[in-house]
Amino acid sequence: MMEYKDLGEQISLLRRQQKISQQVLADQVGISRATLNALEGGRATDVGLRKVIKVLNYLGFELAIREKSAFPTFEELRGE
């Protein structure tokens, strides 16, 4: 299961891989750089789902819902 902190770290990694600054991403999705920084650092527990979706969409990704499994996914095993 992905924790809020893990989501922020993943967003930060995706942004950096695409060589996009926090300020540019924040401006493009309509949030403050401070909010994006807190999201990436796992400190912003009050960031709405719509904002997270906008950030992911800008980076070319989306949220997905899947059935919970007792077994880890390949991606989860790779991350350990």
Overall description:
It is globular, with a radius of gyration of 13 Å. Helix content is 57%, strand content 0%. It is mainly α and 80 residues long.
Rg is: 13 Å
Would you list the SSEs in sequence order as H and E?
HHHHH
Helix content: 55-70%
Alpha-beta content class: mainly alpha
Reported for the largest beta sheet, the result is:
none
- The separation of the N and C termini measures 13 Å
Q: Estimate what percentage of residues fall within beta strands.
A: under 5%
Please give the count of helices: 5
Q: Which term fits the overall shape?
A: globular
User: Which stretches of 5+ consecutive residues score pLDDT under 50?
Assistant: none
Topology:
Layout: H1 4-17, H2 22-29, H3 33-40, H4 49-58, H5 74-79
Helix pairs in contact: 2-3, 2-4
How would you concisely characterize the structure shown here?
This protein has 80 residues and is mostly helical. It has helices at 4-17, 22-29, 33-40, 49-58, 74-79.
Structural descriptors:
mainly alpha
